[in-house]
Amino acid sequence: MDSIVNIALLIAQSIIMFSLGIGLEVKDFKRVLERKKVVGIALIAQVLVLPVLAYLTVHLFSFPPMYAAGLMILSFCPGGVTSNIISKMAKGDVALSVSLTAVTSILAFVSVPFLVALSVTHFLGDALTEYSFSKIALVTFLITTTPVSLGVLFRHFKTSAALRIERGLERLAYVLWSIIVIGAFASAWETVEANFGKIGPGLLFLPIVMTCLGLLIGRMSHLSRTESKTLAIEASIQNSPMALTLAVLISGVSSALPDLALPAAVYSLTMYAVAFPSVLLLRRWGDGPKANPAPAYELDG
């Protein structure tokens, strides 16, 4: 039964990431080269500042080792398609959001396995014997880099077909995302309820501070208001289904939500509890029509 659940998680997460790839075009990657400074600053915030803040959070709020490792795993998982939608809702720089999603999803194969293995070893030592670096690398490749790359290639070579299925695939991705998160809560509601007091404050603290830091880093780096709020959203929204999938596979337990996956499950709620009020506050905080010369990018919906 455990193997069936593991396979289902892999398939669901792969479909989510394939739907992300379908929505990407080659120009989204080219735009990275055209906007090196903006993308570089945003990547530093998402790939470096967020994990450092997560590390500080687990110590500041005295997370037990298993939950500390789980939060670090989450901090390494790039935002995904959800951050693109939230950026659009906040009237952010959606072109920047999409480009960041494209880059971090492809680079995940390089960064995630090493950092996850390092964190698990640091916080848990030999407490977990099921995982291996090669297993994490293979899973990351299967659920991020491969499906995203296939989606981009499909969009490039079969554009008309990709456009026909894009909307339906996006909706399927959100359904699968919901099933993964709701299923995680349903399988361990008592555990979530019993431990929320231990990790809930920290999992609210992280997205709040990261949102503020994103805005601050953007403005101190002389980015526009629109770019700065996009950076804040990208840096605080993480791919919780990916983190849940990795945690379940590393733990070797799928009949119930493993403790290693609990921070990702709770963060899937707390990050939106912070993101949606932020959207309301930031929607009108933007630039004049000439302040941001980047090409416009529209998402269907």
TrEMBL record:
The chain crosses the membrane at residues 6-26, 38-61, 67-86, 98-124, 136-157, 169-189, 201-218, 239-258, 264-282. Its main location: membrane. It comes from the Bacteria. Gene3D superfamilies: 1.20.1530.20. It holds the Pfam family SBF. It is a multi-pass membrane protein. Keywords: Membrane, Transmembrane, Transmembrane helix. This is Bile acid:sodium symporter family protein.
